[in-house]
Amino acid sequence: MLTVLASGGAQAQWQWIDGSGAKVFSDTAPPPGIPDKNILKRPGARTEVKTPEPATDAAAGAPAAAPAPKLTGRDEQLEAKKKQAEKQAEDAAQAKKKAETEKLAKARAENCERAKRAKTTFDSGIRIATTNAKGEREIMDDKTRGAETKRLDEIIRADCGPMPQAAGPQATVQ
Prior knowledge:
It contains 3 helices and 5 strands; from the N terminus they run αβββαββα. The chain is mainly alpha-helical.
């Protein structure tokens, strides 16, 4: 009797069916990828847990149970979450780009409007005064007035027309 009890510890404590359908006997727990239905025997269990065996030649005529899912090494839920995260990141990037484009368009429209108003003032011929670095008021001479009119024309040409297309990473700001 003592010999029978002592030999019980030498037997495998775990028994399961692995992914290829082979029975595995071990004194360590099965890997986490093994589903509960494939674990046939656990430590301390008195009876084996019965699971359907794959169909043999003798049972070939009998209707077979649903085939076991093939293990592909891919986690479909993880892949779906990854695709969803990529889509959200892409959507966020597009929204950010759209917001930047709208902000740039608004700034261009404001610059255009200011330049047009200033050009109208310069074209009216009235005397225009500016303040110098010392805070003193100076009347613009014809040379300064011509340079400022030219600058306003450049602003109107750049900001009042259609929005330029992005030239890519080589585009430089002057």
